[in-house]
Amino acid sequence: MRKTMKFNPIAAGIMLACGASFVQAEAQLEEVTVTAQKREQSLQEVPVAVTAFGEDQLLENGVSDLTDLQKLSPNTTLQVGRGTNTTLTAYIRGIGQADPLWGFEPGVGIYVDDVYIARPQGAVMDVYDVQRVEILRGPQGTLYGKNTIGGAVKYVTKRLTGDTEVSVSGALGSYNQTDFTVKGQTALSDNVFVGATVASYQRDGYGENVITGVDQYNKDVLAARVSLEANLSEDLWVRLAVDRTEDNSNSKHGYRLAPSFAGNEPVLDSVFDTQSNMVSDENVVLNEGASLTAEWDVSDAITVKSITAYRAGESDTNIDFDSINAAEFDVPARYADDQFSQEFQLSWQGESADLVAGLYYFDGMANGKYNAALFSAVTNVSEGQTDTKSMSLYAHSNWALSDRMNLTLGGRITKDEKESTINAYKILGVYSDDLAGADPVNGTGELAFLAPFTDSFYGKKSWTEFSPKIGIDYAISDDVMTYASYSQGFKSGGFNLRAKEEVDPRSADPFAPETVANYEVGVKSELADGRVRLNAAVFNSDYTDMQTGDSTRIYYAATDAAELMQYVVNAGEAQVRGVEVEMVAAITDRLTATTTIGLLDPEYKEILVTQPDGSIEDESDVREMANTPKQTFMAQLSYAVPMAGGELMLNSTYSYRDDVRIFEVPSAIDQDAYGLIDASATFYSADGNWNLSLQGKNLTDEEYIVAGYNLGDAFGIPAWNTAFYGAPRTIALTGNYNF
């Protein structure tokens, strides 16, 4: 049984006030630097809702991959999706992507050194070789090249110094966790530096497939990054970076929430266990890429930057929707993508104004194919590909209207073109008894194909959108700045790659872009002589032409059967109102308190859904926004203790998330409110050459759902509602030594 508790935001407000009132005079907070506006600025000077995490914060909070940041940022969902360890479900302020179908545009942009990552597969990146991570909330289109309708997550890696150095990091922990990282750098000449990092992450599974004995939720990742940097002159810097990540972790199968369809397979004891007839240990997710960045200081006021990048990825996985030792509903799948992007940026800094302008080009391909085997019959094999070309021109400028007031104006014009080919095959056939030897995706193995027909279509569509931003900020004093802004976000349209045009032509219709208009008022403040940092934002987002996906069963005369149909349409309009509060208080020179509060009021105004008879009805009164808790909260205490000439940092964290619907409709996989307790003790040596950290996560061993499938509701088979869970209690000892 999942534990529940309710959070009282009024009590949290009292905690904030009390935290500020007990601050002692000698304590001070360090300045936080961000690049949210494409140039280095103090966090307190940026009129944007942004949370930043430096190296020490990442270490002390035990941040091993992107999802660990969810608990530290308000109104943010960063979860491992279903089926693999590296598919990302990302939502910020209620906007994201629930279905990781290839060819869709994510609602939250992921950037590594300003290079946009186009797909959710492989986006749960391990945090290594990182100087800082920033989470920006709200539309960011006037500063970022592509797809930041809901927000952006930025990885900023370290620049090389040219010093010859080597560092070794490692971790030993629960479930035989064994992580190892080696990185080093040196100078090839006075102005050319080279650096490399290799990282291995290994862990046994939290559970197992009780049929095959294969681990569930294990980890087997190997990553490498090599960079070459050159100061070609005093004014010209160039970096060539190449990276590759190979994830050989087993594919995950869901935990069945009800006895099997036949009633002879009970619910398992451990939520991390599964029953599956499918191959689990041949799952592979590969991501690799290269980027060339050149930065030229034309003058003291003007900088020109070029970012050229190529990335490619592949995924092979097996999805067992029924999670039993039979082929009731099995789906092997394969995804592949590649992307080329080119961005040119111009930055100008004047005495009373500044400007960032850019031209962005993206050319990407996303391909996928899958087979659906229903009750041992191969019922559908589909393959689709979307080619995307996108070009954007953007500008973002600030003007000083007075010593204390600034005006922000920005705009971004985007032209997106999508070209899709979709093949859906209806095949009457039967799996062999030996499913491990069958590969329905590629048509190999013991499969009998009978009476196939092909339903294929080709579509091409383009859209042009303009996204403006206007804002004003005013410094009430040297320590308090307020701001108000209006911005729009845009996410491209596309084609439904699960369409069956022959069954229902509407399924192949292109869907249009969706847009968000965001109104925001905020404050950035440092109080009590710099000992309290209190930042807050209040916003209202009008979300229109929402792209929604729905499944229903429609009678098809050619086969005299009900076909499962999946649609993607612009069916929704919603309003999301919210509040975000972030506070850091240096209570003493050793004790620091950190609090974040996120409050959301998401409401569908209209959501039109295809019914089994083909009619369209408004279901806004029964649906809620997915992966969007109405309350998130985090409270943390950090205490520094001088020890052996160095420093011991003690850290304790409580994070809370309100009730969450995994999908828009109610289902058995919805998650009740829950809280997590983490703690760490990190020692930094006096010479700065080494550190050691003991980290405990989810110390109360809370069970909580992060993803799942509710196909049981669509088919009327409760056993086909399966869930995937967040990590159980884990303990790890990590260390780093710099030679």
Summed up, what is this model?
The protein is mainly β and 739 residues long.
Keywords summarizing the entry:
single chain, 739 residues, mainly beta, Maltoporin, Chain A, five-stranded mixed β-sheet, globular
- Give the CA-CA distance, first to last residue: 49 Å
**Counted beta strands:** 38
CATH class: Mainly Beta
Number of DSSP helices?
3
Oligomer: single chain
- Please indicate the percent range of residues in DSSP E strands (runs of 2 or more): over 45%
**Average pLDDT level:** 86
Structural class: mainly beta
Describe the structure.
This protein has 739 residues and is mainly beta. It has one domain: Maltoporin, Chain A, CATH 2.40.170. It is built from three helices and 38 strands.
Give the arrangement of secondary structure elements.
Blueprint: H1 9-21, E1 33-34, E2 41-42, E3 50-54, H2 55-60, E4 76-80, E5 88-92, E6 95-96, E7 108-112, E8 115-117, E9 130-137, E10 151-157, E11 165-173, E12 177-187, E13 192-203, E14 207-208, E15 215-216, E16 219-231, E17 236-247, E18 255-256, E19 284-297, E20 302-320, E21 329-349, E22 353-374, E23 377-400, E24 405-431, E25 447-475, E26 480-491, E27 514-527, E28 532-556, E29 561-586, E30 591-610, E31 616-618, E32 631-643, E33 646-657, E34 674-684, E35 690-697, E36 705-710, H3 711-715, E37 721-725, E38 730-738
Parallel strand pairs: 7-10
Antiparallel strand pairs: 1-2, 3-9, 4-5, 5-6, 7-8, 9-10, 11-12, 11-38, 12-13, 13-16, 14-15, 16-17, 17-19, 18-37, 19-20, 20-21, 21-22, 22-23, 23-24, 24-25, 25-26, 26-27, 27-28, 28-29, 29-30, 30-31, 30-32, 32-33, 33-34, 34-35, 35-38, 36-37
